[in-house]
Amino acid sequence: MTRDTTPTRTSPARAGVREWAGLGVLAMAVLLIAVDATVLDVAVPFISESLRPTSSQLLWIIDVYSFVLAGLLVTMGTLGDRIGRRRLLLLGAAGFGAASVLAAFSTGPGMLIAARVLQGVAGATLMPATLASIRSMFCDTRQRMTAIGIWGAMWGGGAAVGPVLGGWLLEYFWWGSVFLVNVPIMLLLLATAPQVIPESRDPQPGRFDLVSAGLSIPAVLAVVYAIKELTTDGPSWRLAVLGVLGVVAGWVFVRRQRTLDDPLIDVRLFRVPSFSTAIVANALSVFALAGVLFFGSQFIQLVLGYRPLPTGLLMLPGTLASVVGSLLAAPLARWWGVRLALGVPLMATALGAVSMVGLSTDGRAVLYAAAFTLIGLGAGVALTLTSAMVVEAVEPERAGAASAVSETSYELGGAAGVAVLGSVLMAVFRGRLDTAALADGDAQAARETLGGAIATAERLDPGVGADLVRSAHEAFVTGIHVAATATAVLLLVTAILAMILLRPTRR
């Protein structure tokens, strides 16, 4: 008798009930982090009234969470590959819950800032661990794409829920309630994760390079900080020096990775067209979303006169559309191939951005909601697809480091969107604002922000004040037109490059 030695092809094991239940637990963590990133926006006036922070302290309360999170993503993603992603997830969940309690019961601005720092540290452990765990739990490509789509939907859904949830909580409870909602979800995660999420790590991780970790933090943190501060303070030598230092630290970091046997990040991945295209598309999709949210909320509240809760409801269709887009990413990639599935949504996002040229001072909130919905839909598809492309470019053992790179590009894109588009908008605003009838001090205050112009108008004679408000509204809307056009051009160029660089492969 002869034995058949013909090799047989085995398909990857398909995920079962335990893996899908584990995805639900991971989705809860992502949902919570996304909610926490946006829920604070509507609580700022209440925090200001209760804790009396200075303007600088208030900015730190809002931004320090994202600063710390962005700076630690790479280090924490690689650490999860080494010590175990589930272990890091549980540590992060416990830390996030404790920091949320500390934030809720803060008695002063300094205490709240410290709590937000701790939330950022914990959040940096959670994000890479969730996406990397999905990479190891779902071996079948089609199931993995669906799982990443759900993961992305939770991110978009959390961003949508944040302002609405915050508005509802603040109607009935004190401002600390926006932090306390985190606690029961984190307790549930701690109780269920050990049963449904398998531990995964790199079996041969090599040496953890502390020098590389030390370089990655200032490289990302300095750049993100400089970009964000540019929006509020304008250009300065201090920010320029800080940005240069961040770039230099990043350059040294990359050089070091190319010489190490066990790098923190394998920078050779950026030579792979699918990986580098995914990173760029990821960053620019968030760039558009963040910028539109930044000037859109001001347009609805300060130009059209809506209150915070109706403003959140007007933005809800756009953020819910990003959830739908995330869920559509998997079937679109199967039907069209990756190139079209990424290029067409980026073009749709560009179309949504250019539609905002139709906004005016006499209304059209519906036009903003429709344009933002189109942007959210396209960005939802693009962000989910690029996340899947990034983690599939590496072995499962290195998924944490790859996920961290993807999420760092997300943070950089968001910071750049607010800073660059905000700077463009404010440059147009200051150039077109008519302050000829104002004293020098009033003119300077009016040029700072749209809110500053409206506050200045309230101190002036009714006729002069009305003229100033009218001019401020018109100048701000013109700035939106310029910023939206620039966003559309950038997204269209990215879509064309994606179509050129990516081969028409099927997933």
UniProtKB/TrEMBL annotation:
Where would you find this protein in the cell?
Cell membrane
CDD domains assigned to the protein according to its UniProt record, in alphabetical order:
MFS_MMR_MDR_like (cd17321)
The protein's name in its UniProt record: MFS transporter
What keywords were assigned to this record? Cell membrane, Membrane, Transmembrane, Transmembrane helix, Transport
Q: What is the protein's major site of localization?
A: membrane
SUPFAM superfamilies in the cross-refs = MFS general substrate transporter (SSF103473)
What is the protein's membrane topology class? Multi-pass membrane protein
TM ranges: 20-46, 58-76, 88-107, 113-134, 146-166, 172-196, 208-227, 239-254, 275-300, 312-333, 340-359, 365-391, 412-429, 480-502
Q: Does the keyword Transport apply?
A: yes
Query: Domain named Major facilitator superfamily (MFS) profile: which ranges?
Result: 22-506
Q: Name one GO molecular function term.
A: transmembrane transporter activity
Give a GO cellular-component term: plasma membrane
State the source organism's domain of life.
Answer: Bacteria
